[in-house]
Design goal:
With 181 residues, this protein is mainly alpha-helical. The protein contains 8 helices and 2 strands. Helix 1 packs across helix 4 (74-85). The termini are far apart.
Length: 181
């Protein structure tokens, strides 16, 4: 799936949850999907315009004073389901912490410890964010989307816990490196 097609999936997927203004769509992609998917804001509006031209979304006007909202069409929903059924394409990971640790001999043990402490701090912060998101979802009126939202929250929680465990293991490895020196 090309990057453009993945942008289309993000836009159509967000609109499958509820109709939104362009601004609300940008915010949802940033604040909700942003925990596991990044999307260039410069791509969202052109994608929205193309999806509209292709008949996959439509623009609705609530009244003369209200901003227009975008709604996924039945054809758009069918297109989304087809795209979602395709194999996921992962992007190459770019992790600055791992890049620096790989060259840790040049950075030194203390520099590596600082990197790991930062990683632990970020993991703890992510766990707190995911806990807040989980509580928010559970407090809302239940919807058919909620169990699926919670699956992605769970993945984030597991990843953050895994990072915290990896930091502990790595700190012990740095202790061994230091004592061998």
């Amino acid at each position: 799936m090309t990057l453009k097609q993945q942008t289309d999936v993000a836009v159509l997927g967000a609109l499958s949850v509820e109709p939104m203004t362009g601004y609300a769509l940008r915010k949802a992609i940033r604040d909700v999907l942003g925990h596991f998917w990044s999307e260039s804001f410069g791509q969202i509006y052109p994608a929205l315009a193309q999806l509209r031209a292709d008949g996959l979304v439509e623009r609705t006007h609530e009244d003369a004073d209200s901003k227009s909202k975008f709604t996924i069409t039945p054809r758009g929903l069918a297109h989304l389901r087809t795209r979602l059924a395709e194999p996921a394409q992962s992007a190459r990971q770019r992790n600055g912490t791992l890049l620096r640790l790989f060259f840790g001999r040049q950075l030194g043990v203390e520099g590596c410890r600082r990197l790991l402490e930062d990683a632990r701090s970020q993991a703890v912060q992510q766990l707190e964010q995911f806990d807040a998101i989980r509580r928010e979802i559970e407090a809302e009126q239940p919807s058919a989307d909620h169990p699926f939202f919670l699956l992605t929250v769970s993945a984030g929680e597991h990843a953050a816990r895994s990072t915290a465990m990896w930091v502990e293991e790595s700190m012990r490895a740095l202790d061994r490196i230091e004592s061998a020196s």
